[in-house]
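Hello,

Our lab assistant flagged a job as stuck in the queue for most of the afternoon. It eventually completed. Since we weren't sure the result was trustworthy after the delay, we are filing this so someone can double-check. Below is the sequence as submitted and the structure that was eventually returned. Let us know if re-running is recommended.
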Amino acid sequence: MAAGVSPVDAALRAGRTPMSARLALPHIPGVDAAGIVDEIGPGVTGVQPGDEVFGSVDLARLGGASAEFAVLRSWAVKPPAMPWTQAGAAGTSVETATRALDLLGVRPEMILLIDGAAGGVGSVAVQLAVARGARVIGTARPGNHDFLRSLGAEPTTYGPGLPSRVAHADRALDVAGAGSLPELITLTGDPSSVLTLADRTAASHGVRLSMGELAGEPHGRHGLPLAARLFTEGRFEVPIEAQFPLYDVAAAHTAVESGPRRGKIVLVSP
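-- returned structure --
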C-alpha cells in the first residue's frame, strides 16, 4: 500500500555507500513498506494473511520495497487509524532512531541534543526520546522550529555556533552529518556521549558512527511495536513531506536528494 523513500535508498541506487557493492543486481530499491499480508513464512507467528502490517525488508538479501510485493524482515501490526503513508515510511526511521537512543543510553530527564531534528529520522528520534522521558533540544532551520515544538522538542537554530545557543547536553545525536561533531563534544564534554548516523569522520573525533546490524550493532526492531502503541496513544506520528504514486519512484528519489526535508518521502499504491 505504501513504501518509504529515504536518503539510504538514493545512496544505494547511486553507489554512494559501500553496501551498494554487496547488492545482487538487478536490485529493486526500497527498504520500508506497509501493506496487507499475502503470505507468511514457516515459523512466523502473531500475524495472518489479511492483516495490516508495516516494517522493513532484508536489504542485503532481497530489498524490493518499492514494488507491488515485498518480503518484510521486521514488522509490527499497523494500528487501524495509522495512515498508510505514515506506516509505509516508518520502518527504518523507527529502527534507526531506536538503535541510536539505545546506544546513547537515553533515559528519563537526560538532555538530548539532536542535530538535524526535522528530517525523517530526526523527527522520529525526537518523539521516541520524549516518550522515554528525555528533554530534547533539536536543531533545524527557523522555519521548522514550530514543527519541532509540535513534536515535543525545544528548537534551536541549525548550523555552527551551537555552544553559544545551548548551554549543555547529556547526550548528542548527529543525524545531519554536517561537521558538527567537535561542537557536540564540547556540549556533552565527552566523545562517548555523542553518536552520529551520517558523519564518516567520526573516528577521527573519537565518536561512534552507527551503521546498524550489518556493522554488528544491536538492532532497534523492538521500536516498531512501541511506535505503533505510541501512535495509538496519540504520542507518535511519522511526518510526511511529500507522496508520489508508486510508478513515479524516480521523482521520489529526486525529491529525497533535493536537500533538507521536514519528514519523509513516501510512495503510495495507485
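-- support follow-up --
The delay was a queue issue, not a problem with the job. The result is valid. The mean pLDDT is 93. The domain at 2-90+238-268 is CATH 3.90.180.10 (Quinone Oxidoreductase; Chain A, domain 1).
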